[in-house]
Amino acid sequence: MTGMRDYLFISLGLVLYALGFTAFILPHEIVIGGLSGVGTLVYFATKGLVPVAVTQYACNLLLLSFAYKIVGKTFVLRTIFGATAISLAIGLGESIFMGLGHPIIADISMSAILGGILCGVGIGIVFVHNGSSGGTDIVAAMVSKLSNQSIGRTMIYTDMTIVMCSIFLPFEGTFQERLDARIPLIVYGLVVTFVIAYMTDMIINTNRQATQFIIFSHKWAEIADRVNKEAKRGVTVLDGLGWYSKHEVKILMVWCRKIESVTIFRIVKSIDEEAFITQANVNGVYGKGFDTMKVKLKKHKKEDPAKMVEES
After folding, report:
1. How many CB atoms lie within 10 A of CB 40?
2. What region does 255 belong to: left with phi over 0, alpha with psi -120 to 50, or beta?
3. Three-state DSSP class for 242?
4. Element containing residue 278 per DSSP (H, E)
C-alpha cells in the first residue's frame, strides 16, 4: 500500500508540473531549467518540429544510465516511471495549450510566477515520495545522496546555464534586437527557476521539519507510555529540580514530525490538562525513525612508516 500511495502522489506531482509548464510557461516562450528547458530550446530552435517531450525523454534515459550506481535501483525505476509519465503529460499539455495559439494568461509576469509555483510544488511532492521527474532532479538526487547540499540550490546551479542558452535561439534581426527580445525572457526564465527551486525546498523541508516537546507532569509515566503506544515515538525521561518548590520532577522530551504534533497534544491533554509543555520547531532530526545523516567524512592520509622512522 505504501508503494502504491507513493506512486499516486508522484503522479499528482508530475501532473502539477506538466500543467504549470505547458499552460503558463511554454506559451510565453520562456526557457526554464532542467530537461524541460533543454526541450524548450530544441522545440523553438526547430520551430516546433521536435516536441519538448521527445527531447526530455531521450535525455532522461541518457542521464539515468550514468546515475544508476549512485542513486540505486529503486530510484531509477521510479524515475523511469516519472520520466515516462512527465513526458506523456507534457506531450498532452503541449498539444492542448500550444494549440490554442495564445497563452491562457496574457500577463507574462503572473503567468510565469503561477507556472513556477505549480512546477515547484509538483517537484517537491515527487521528491517527498522518493520519486523523480528526471532531468536535473537526477543530478540533485545524486548530490543529495552524497551530502546535505540543498536540492533546490543544486537545481539552480545546473539550470541557470540552460536558461542562459536561450540567447542563442534563432532570431531574425540585428544582434541588438536579439538582446532586446531575449534578455527579458532570460530574466523571466531565471525568476521561474528560482521560484521552482524555492517551492521545491519549501515542500521538502516542510515534510522533514520536526517538533521538540518538553513536558512537565506528575503523570509523566502514563504520558510516556501513551506516546510510545499511540504516537509510536520514543520518550526520554530526565531528572529535574523545581527551584521554587525544591521538589524533584521528571521531564519528558519527545521529538516527532510536525504533522504528529496534534497527536502529542491530545495525549497530554487527555491525561493531565495542567501539564506544562513547551514546543519548539526543529529544522531536522537525524537518527532512527527520522532522517539519515548524509555527510562525507574526511579521508586521513596514511603516514609512511619509513618516513616516520627517518624523522625520529
Report:
1. 26
2. beta
3. strand
4. strand 276-282
User: Which candidate, 181, 142, 177, places its Cα nearest to that of 30?
Assistant: 181
Please name the amino acid found at residue 303.
E
Instruction: Output the CA–CA distances (angstroms, integers) from residue 261 to 92, 203, 257, in the order listed.
Output: 41, 18, 7
Total number of residues shown for the chain: 312
Cell numbers standing for residue 186 = 532570460
| Grid coordinates given for 270 | 487527555
- Name the pTM for this structure: 0.70
| Separation CA 26–CA 131 (nearest Å) | 24
Model confidence over 113-169: pLDDT tens digits?
999 999 999 988 888 887 777 776 677 666 666 666 566 566 677 788 889 998 888
Residue 130 DSSP label: T
φ/ψ of 72, rounded to 5, equals 95, 165
Strand partners, 254: 213, 235
Structural element, H or E, at residue 238: strand 235-242
